[in-house]
Design a protein that fits this description.
Layout: H1 3-36, H2 38-51, H3 61-74, H4 78-113, H5 118-138, H6 142-150, H7 154-177, H8 182-207, H9 220-244, H10 247-253, H11 257-266, H12 268-282, H13 285-293, H14 297-333, H15 342-367, H16 371-396, H17 398-425, H18 431-458, H19 463-480, H20 482-485, H21 489-498
Helix pairs in contact: 1-2, 1-7, 1-12, 1-21, 2-5, 2-10, 2-11, 3-4, 3-6, 3-9, 3-13, 4-5, 4-6, 4-9, 5-8, 6-8, 7-8, 9-16, 10-11, 12-14, 12-15, 14-15, 14-18, 14-19, 15-16, 15-17, 16-17, 18-19
């Protein structure tokens, strides 16, 4: 199976997963709000952001490991893959222990940090502890998922993801109906991940039993090297966490728990669609690492240019949907009280693009070896974001923390990451502007104007109508952007099957 076919299959599964998650969320969020209340749900979201910091004790090993396995697979080095598996397992066990310790410390600090009263504390801290314990159990098992990702076992990974997608909501609904409150959300978050880890272990034993034989005790030197390899991804994880998952915590710390929920609901559509827009290229990262392992320099550069085009083209389509229909979507879905306002909506659309561009140059550079440099840039941008979010958010609330995100990601991170990207790819620093950014701006400008006009015209139609209009806007934007992305393998394969009768003049060439 070729890299393009694998990436295409992974993309289809990814879209099915995100589409299913979005549809389930539309029904599940109002149901959950009715059962636990807006205030407690806001505290739950904020506590989740806080406890997520404990997971960063894994030092980026599980982010980097699939790329290292893919490179070893490109060299057909089974001994190296086996060594990476055992060494990664040892590193994951150490990380799980550290994660549990940090989680317990944060658990004790949670009431003070979020200003929880006695009644609120009794409702929140127990479920948070459940999440921490289940996460510590599931974490070492994630190594087997890294192996499957590195080997590009895309059909199994996609099937398991869809099963987990259904299992979490089932647990949530059943336990909420039984009156378990936030415990339902806690078990729905942790139990599926533990089950996935067991399923991945069994799958590795089925398709690559040689990797589970002749294990040697991992050496500390090997674990240390793996931690060093992952240190860049670890720093990047901290930075991304500070930038993208601290806003609710900042608002809660400023004494605005209901604003946490308003921001989450106004940002819901953007988050879901942004993750979906990343699926095609994220699905090709293992293929990019495999290609780099084969030392095909010219093809690697061609692939990178087209991948960044795809990232930005699809992000532009998402931004158009947010500008055109997100106000009507939030009002029709949850209600006017949970819409953060037109200024916040505009900033969210800008963040879709800036975060996507940052994600693109970050993952490409990391796959190709500039992990520490990218991690340092992300971490620095994250620290600045939190400081700005507190300073501006104290005066402007939700709008303030979103402005902080635009500055930290659109200006600071891009400036810091530009040179590491150029070193990793061997491309001049002006290449992205000439080959990607300038043609994207040319095609994006009229779409922004039309989207803002449509927002004023539609008002607040029924939710199904709003969703239909959003789909039309997104498809029209994707179609308008097609010259930028049709030379990317997975997209080209889907296009050729569905639209063979349409003329095609793609720019560029090459795909992983």
């Amino acid at each position: 199976m070729s890299r393009t076919v694998r990436a295409t299959i992974a993309t289809l599964f990814g879209y099915a997963r995100f589409g299913g998650a979005f549809a389930i969320g539309l029904a599940l969020v109002p149901f959950t709000l009715h059962r636990v209340g807006a205030t407690m749900y806001g505290y739950w979201l904020a506590s989740g952001e806080l406890m997520a910091y404990a997971a960063l004790t894994e030092f980026g090993v599980l982010v980097t490991l699939p790329w290292l396995i893919a490179q070893a697979d490109g060299r057909n080095d089974r001994n190296q893959i086996r060594e990476l598996l055992t060494t990664g397992g040892g590193a994951a066990l150490l990380s799980a222990a550290g994660c549990l310790v940090i989680s317990v410390i944060l658990w004790f600090a949670l009431p003070r940090l979020l200003h929880l009263g006695p009644e609120q504390q009794s409702m929140v801290v127990g479920p948070v502890l459940v999440v921490a314990l289940l996460g510590a159990v599931a974490h070492p098992l994630r190594v087997f998922g890294c192996v499957l990702n590195g080997l590009q076992d895309v059909r199994f990974n996609g099937t398991v993801d869809l099963i987990v997608l259904l299992l979490g909501p089932i647990i949530t609904v059943v336990m909420l109906l039984q009156g378990y409150g936030l415990y339902a959300l806690a078990f729905a978050s942790g139990v599926p991940q533990a089950l996935v880890g067991v399923a991945n272990l069994l799958r590795v034993g089925s398709i690559a039993p040689d990797l589970l034989r002749d294990w040697r005790r991992p050496k500390w030197s090997g674990i240390r090297r793996l931690f060093v390899e992952g240190s860049g991804a670890w720093l990047a994880g901290w930075g991304w966490r500070l930038i993208s998952a601290s806003d609710g915590l900042v608002l809660a710390s400023l004494g605005r728990p209901t604003a946490v929920a308003a921001l989450a609901f106004t940002n819901k559509l953007a988050q879901a669609l942004t993750q979906m827009s990343w699926v095609p290229c994220d699905s090709g990262l293992a293929g990019l690492a495999h290609l780099a392992g084969e030392q095909q320099g010219p093809r690697v550069k061609q692939t990178i240019v087209v991948m960044v085009r795809v990232y930005l083209a699809l992000a532009g389509a998402v931004a158009c949907v947010i500008l055109a229909v997100n106000p009507a979507f939030v009002r029709g879905w949850i209600g006017l009280n949970f819409y953060a306002g037109s200024n916040a909506n505009l900033l969210i659309a800008i963040l879709v693009v800036t975060m996507t561009f940052g994600h693109a140059i970050s993952v490409v550079s990391s796959v190709l070896g500039q992990r520490v440099q990218i991690g340092s840039a992300t971490f620095a941008a994250g620290l600045i974001h939190v400081a700005l979010a507190f300073a501006i958010g104290m005066r402007l609330g939700i709008v303030g923390v979103l402005i902080a995100g635009v500055i930290s990601h659109g200006v600071i991170f891009s400036s810091l990451a530009w040179r590491p990207f150029a070193r990793a790819t061997g491309m001049p620093e002006t290449a992205l502007f000439d080959d990607v950014i300038r043609p994207w701006l040319f095609r994006m400008s009229p779409l922004v104007v039309l989207s803002l006009i449509l927002q004023k015209l539609i008002g607040t139609p029924p939710l199904p109508v709003t969703m239909g209009l959003g789909g039309i806007v997104g498809l029209a934007a994707v179609w308008h952007m097609r010259p930028l992305y049709l030379s990317f393998g997975p997209v080209r394969a889907l296009y050729d099957r569905a639209f063979k009768w349409l003329p095609l003049r793609p720019r560029g060439a090459g795909a992983a």
